[in-house]
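Training component of the fellowship. As part of building independent skills, the fellow (R.M.) carried out the full modelling exercise for a liganded target. The chosen ligand was guanine. The inputs are recorded below so that the supervisory panel can assess the work.
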Amino acid sequence: MSTAFKNMQAYRASLLHFHADPAFDGAAHAWHEDGLLVVEDGRVKAAGDYAALADTLPAGVTPHDYRGQLITPGFIDTHLHYPQTDMIASPAPGLLPWLETYTFPTERRFEDPAHARATAEFFLDELLRCGTTTAVVYCTVHPQSVDAFFEASEARNLRMVAGKVLMDRHCPDFLRDGEGGVGTSADLIEKWHKRGRQLYAITPRFAPTSTDAQLRATAELAKAYPDTFIQTHVSENKDECKWVGELHPQARSYLDVYERFGLMRPRALFGHCIWLDDEDFARMAATGSAAAVCPTSNLFLGSGLFDFERADGARTLLSLGTDVGAGTSFSMLQTMNEAYKVARLKGSYLPALRMFYLATLGAARAMGLEGTVGSFAPGTEADFIVLDPKATPLLARRTAQRESLEELLFALALLGDDRVIKATYAAGTLVHSRT
Ligand code: GUN
Ligand code: ZN
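Fellow's submitted model of the complex:
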């Protein structure tokens, strides 16, 4: 066989991906019932109808037969904490006691690089089992927790975004940054940002745990490295909002604290955004900042219900996050399931197509990564997943009756979890296979 196409593979299945946001554009998705995905050198070469593309394959390239299954871009989870893996499902009456009782003691263990690396490996296994190929990840204050995470991700050639938590007040001494927290973040950016597929997120934990001096220095760092990400939490919980109001009486709102310090910009991802008002959502949209909506976490901690209608009214960039360990599942399908119910409780409606968009192209757009991940546009990195509509007896029975694509996706989101993910590919390489 000639070497000209030795790095080409093809996959036959039903294909779904997006060109636009189905909430605002009628022709937002591409659906190929009998489709073919062609991958070359780890990137998408073509995606379309099998009948149209099969003849374009060079002799010797035999499609992998996934007929009866559905291929979509890998899911993108825009908010979660790898150090909190071991404390998932830890009960507490609300965010602030949960942080004190479980989170801070758990994160302390990440001063040990061996513990950090072992947890990062388990965490990445779990993401891939759930079909998540890109995630935006909080580490701890310890730089070794960042090295451990990126080393594990780099070894698997995954497209991951992560950063060191910045925190220099209102936290235990054992997790408090000294003077050097922001400087250490700069060193980590130099080391990891854009090294292979790794990307760095400047990560002030949330407004209450940074002094004004740290927030100022953090904003300077974000200006010095404008193509990095920023991630933080905002307006998750009513007690937290009240606390921020006391700490920053001059700010118009909790979100305004970040804007005043210069932390709102494209590639800034704000977790939760529950208690934002119309002006806040307008500022999110105007600055190109994005919301990471975390329904399983918000329901678990009793934080509140995200207002999709209000956010869409302002055309705020939206994405979905699991927020593990406050989130109760690594599965983006389960995250969709809870997002759907949150929308219903707020009197609005989230179609399944929109939820799959938010977990793929919508997230890529929120992150400024359209064309890199999140779709099957030619040239996009070939991170994709194979979903099995017959993964469980109940799913098989329900999806056999489906009368539309929407019904199929809805059943997968409401009834599905890691069991649905038959295979996960990263940059064209199989990285998880369900046996
Ligand atoms: N706010 C500040 N830190 C955290 C965290 O670790 N998890 C959640 N859910 N909210 C936070
Ligand atoms: Zn979080």
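The panel noted the following from the submitted structure. The chain has a mean pLDDT of 97. Residues 113-129 form the longest helix (17 residues).
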